[in-house]
Amino acid sequence: MARLLRDNDYLPQIQADNLAQILESVEEYRLEMEQTAQAEMISYLAQRYITSEVFTDTTVFDITATYYGKNLVEYTAPTFDASTIYVTDDRVVYDGNIYNSIAGSAAHAFDPSEWTLIAADKSLYFAKLNEAEYSNKTTYEEGDLVWYQNIVYTALGQTTGNLPTDNSFWTAGATYSFTGQLPDDTTYWTKGDNRNQQIKAYLVDITLYHLYSRINPRNIPELRMIRYDGNSPKQHGGALGWLKMVAGGEVNADLPEILPSQGVSIMGGSIPKRINLPDNW
User: What is the domain count for the chain?
Assistant: First the structure.
């Protein structure tokens, strides 16, 4: 099942043995409650933010897959096997790290001199953009290139605040994607986690709350109640309180916003100016 979270995202907030206890060895419970928690968060965020870009999938890297800008992957490799003959550039996991074979090796115990350290096993990498991401606050000049929702656009003239999908101001180019580039290739990938960390933490909190509710809704631990519902009548301090404040416009989240289709007019050339009129015009 596609999911934003990884299993070890839970460990900062709950001990592994406690988590195993509430899961009752049924991993499907976790996945089901994650989807429930995600739907709950989307219901509060969808009016202001592009939730399809917030709740993206974290996948295991596949050399044959096609990747697009901002895609997040977990990188791993086959476990080292002393009985295997390796060739140059084979990759393995040994003692928690990913290694690349320097020149191949015979079947024998792991010899560090025959391998180059790449990264810790299950490190996260996200796909780089081939152009700067579009911003509705930036003034673009004729010929400027931007990345917007996996497509590269070219400005037809000076413009501010007009979405690249508006062909009065922009022309669309090719969809940006790549295949066959290993995560340690810095031309295509950046090592790190590009998920919003607040969203990740609250998604864990809400999931854990629902997991405990599934067992006994009348006996949910106080910590899980506070992390979900807050510690005051207005639910301040909890995930639900934060979501309500975001939905009500009391706080702004660092998330991709739903942008208006039109802003400041384009100038220059033969492209007509566009004027923003008052709502009651």
Answer: 2
220 domain residue, yes or no: yes
pLDDT value at residue 262? 62
Contacts 24+ apart (CB under 8 A), 130-133: 130/69, 130/176, 131/176
Q: Are residues 3 and 51 in the same domain?
A: yes
pLDDT in tens, 132-166: 999 999 999 999 999 999 999 999 999 999 999 99
Flag whether 111 is in a domain: yes
CATH number of the domain within which 84 lies: 2.10.10.20
Interatomic CA distance for residues 207 and 219, integer angstroms: 16
Q: What is the pTM of this model?
A: 0.87
Torsions phi, psi of 32, nearest 5? Answer: -65, -45
Residues 6+ apart with CB under 8 A from 236: 230
